[in-house]
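Much of our argument rests on the idea that a fold can be written as discrete symbols. Part of our work consisted of pairing the sequence of a single chain with a tokenised description of its backbone. We regard such an encoding as a compact summary of how the chain folds. The amino acid sequence and the backbone structure tokens for this protein are reproduced below.
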Amino acid sequence: MDNTNQTNSFEKLVVSKFNLFNSLFLSLPFDKIGKTGMMLSLLQEQCVSGLDNGLQPTEILEGFFETQNSLQNPTDQVDFMFRVIQYVERQVVLFDSVEDAAFKTTQKDGNKLSLNDFIHLAESKRRQAEIPRKLADFSARIVFTAHPTQFYPPAILEIIQQLREHVNDNNLMKVDLALQQLGMTSFGNQQKPTPFDEAKNIIYYLRNVYYDALGDFYTDLKKQFQNQKFNNPEIVKLGFWPGGDRDGNPFVTAKVSMQVADELRMTLMKCYYKDLKDLSKKLSFRGVEEIISQLRTAIYPTLFQADKSLAFDEIVDPLEKAKQIVAEKYNGLYSDKIDLLIDKVTIFRTHFAGLDIRQNHEVHRQSVEAVLKSNKLIKESLSELTDEQLVQILTEDQLSINPGAYDSEIINDTIASIKQIEEIQRKNGEEGCNRYIISNSEDVFSVLFVFGLMRWIFADRQAITIDIVPLFESMEGMRNAPQIMQFLFGNAVYKKHLESRKSKHTLMLGFSDGTKDGGYLKANWSIYKTKEALTAVCQKNGISPIFFDGRGGPPARGGGKTHQFYASQSDKIANNEIQLTIQGQTISSRFATPEHFKYNIEQLITAALSHQINGRENVIHPGLRKTIESLSEISFEKYLALKNHPMFMPYLENKSTLRFYSKANIGSRPAKRGQEEKLKLSDLRAISFVGSWSQLKQNVPGYFGIGTALNQLKEENRLDELRLLFQNAPFFRILILNAMMSLSKSNFKLTAYMAKDREYREFWHILNDEYELSKEMLLLISGYESLMEEEPITKKSIMIRERIVLPLLVIQQYALQMIEKNDSDKAVYEKMVTRSLYGNINASRNSA
């Protein structure tokens, strides 16, 4: 591990450049005061010293205002705070751009293995022949979600792209112009985005980054294994949730899903058309020029007309023919360019990304109940039937369904959504929409309700060309998962369906709601054990399991060190495919540029190879498993006590930014499930739940309970056992390192004033004590002197980002305090809190 080169590169290419461009940015005259940029540096210093000295946010800002002659008027003070928020947002963009521009160099000097490095490592172990065999049937599926955890509108994304290029070129004049444009471009949405707007924001990346990046990556991979004639265009697949994920989002309808599927296809055709246009300038040969021209003519109507589409063969066959003629008659000139386009067409086919449909189990229950009532099989409720009777109806009986004939709008739309999958597959190919995900799966009927609906809706089909994917996300769902799948495999009709799907079954595990339900350590350990149990059940029944991980940005939602997480899995967990959700900030921080995309895809692939080569080494010794089990239960009890504390929900409602998420125009989905006035934890979306703790700089879901669990075992004289666990169990080690990241992003000084709050001081102390204990215990078992010691660059990046957003956070807490005092300008301060959400979330890059 050579951290010195990486640190030096980071200081030179990121820190120094950011300081230079930041000083330029802060001197630009964007506002009527004209001094906000210069005053921001002073405010930043005052925030640091003020919090260190135990001052409240109100005291820090009021003290600052007293020292500034231009800020004696309350109106000017409020105006200044809003402008600070705007400046900080743009500083974050600038730092993102500088850091991204340096990525290629800083990651090269890092300690992560590239695919080439891994091949050399395998050669040293005499296992190099296993790599092409593994990659021949391996697939990584990256699924972009609709969750709004990154808020840059398209105009800002374009400026970020410009900034990256100009920073890379050290073009000070163009950086200056881009910064001026950035300062005058709005970050906020005037109204909430529609699901279609959200889809188009992600499609931006598909068109401008992934189309070329994935094509280039695959070409490079084929060159690397050209002796083995490598051919696996499915090694990286793209999935898509915006416009398909209707769980709790009434604005996602069948009509929207069709719109998004059409947009994906039409955008892909625009990419193909552009490549064909470039290719036609090179392939000016008789017999070839005509083929390319005819293909361009055929594709052109599909660029803009949703009712026009081409089949995969209609695109790839002319290209293959052109390639053959060039090889036979024109010395293979530019055949590499034809090959690249053929590769892209083979990868993306006619869908670009597969649109997943997701809905909640309860909606399917209501839909089945309505269908059974209309078919006179029940009077009112499914409870009139035994489980055996219901299973028979769902798997064997053929019922009639009348689309649009039911009283409930959501039931009609659910039926329409399933029905139109057929149309999407006709236009985009089967891969365009062939997965149906059921959230909140806790029993066999979670799957069978959907299976029954599909049987009835597609009665004229010989086979259902859709994978039904249960999402196990609660502790109960994970406990029941092996028994649920065993029952399904034992059902002859369902087993026959699986045989038509190549005897594979995708199983989704939800890290976000799992952590909310069981706490950090318990949820992650439960998912690990559930994967082991499901692997065994599937293999016993001749089914290949594919695990699809619903991971968010931060460790509290399954994020963090993704590569190390997959590399740490044992050979008891199936790993022929890696599937995971990517969202919001994770898209912008890990997949926003071709360099980021290729690097992180390569890391996922080396993780799978590592699992193949080191899987047996990753098996956790029975004695160490017992230790993790003990830690899991102790931490769960601590977390459960916190969840059940009478101040838990009031604290989130009244002392955090939770209630302001719904006021920000950042996503189409409601901030909570259900319509009840009283807020319940079960109704809270994981994003707003985790995000609220992040805004408080307390990050509770990312570590809470670990300190208590480790300390209890230490008190039992088991410290050596814990250190052994950290050193020898890669899975546990990754959990600890991710918890260190959560702790590194915490700052209890920001909310230390709550220690004197009559109503919430006891609860705040519970949180603070566990934070301090967790920090102490993690350092003790790791032997580190400081958190994230093994990742100096990430640690440095976090420190800089936290420093940038500190004035914004102090202003946010100040505004919350003023709201609590019921200040006459309460509405203004509420707007201030809402406005402050953007910058902090974007700065964290994985806060929700």
Notes: Residues 623-816+839-844 form one domain. The chain has a mean pLDDT of 90. Residues 105 and 220 are 19 Å apart (CA to CA). The two ends are 30 Å apart (CA to CA).
